[in-house]
Write a structure and sequence with these properties.
This protein is mainly alpha-helical. The chain has one domain (10-84, 115-206): Orthogonal Bundle (Peroxidase, domain 1), CATH 1.10.520. The chain contains ten helices and no strands. Helix 4 packs parallel to helix 8. It is globular. The chain starts with 9 loop residues before the first helix and ends with a helix. Residues 88-103 have low confidence and may be disordered. Residues 83-109 are annotated as: Disordered. It holds the Pfam family CRISPR_Cse2. It comes from Kitasatospora phosalacinea.
Amino acid sequence: MTPTPTYTSAVERRRGYSAYIAHVTDLCRDHGIRHQLSLGRGRPVDDCDGAIHRHLSRLTRTSPARRAHYTLACLVALAGRPGPDAGTDAGPGPDADSKEATPDEGTYLNPAWYRRPNFGALLATAVRCAGFTPGRTEEALDVITRVSTDQAHRRLPALTERILRAGLTPDWPVLLDDLAQYEHQPGRVRTRWFDAYYATLDHAAKDPS
């Protein structure tokens, strides 16, 4: 995989994020590499071990959201050995309203992209399906979207591990996109996650099946 470019559009950025996650997922098929990437847990890029840089430096050195890339590599590693079908972008197909889109471009345009489950929607699913306590889960979402960028990166692995142990998996490219934006637009990410959290709970209440 070539180094992360400077993206000129949201579509390019999201496609690049999906390619990065696919590459990291493939790396994590190797137990040794997976362990090395997991050691980046919560660390700033400059505090990471050389082994982590060996696998991620070439991919991220031009990215303005480098720490988000390192954090997501750690989270993917914490998820354990990928299954045989992991590493492909499992997002929805092109949006029907995107007449100008190339065959895969609609997947990355706003309407389709924002239909994919973000971290707020995932936490709501954990409440619905995995026995997470609503009050404590909402508090965890409130905390992680109010703290500094550094603290968000440090806290995210523990919360993600809880979700993974419950048998749920984040949409990694969407989480990477949101975490990359968090440093500059934390309020927007916070609102998007809370909107998705309550929308997912409300939908479940209306359609218990």
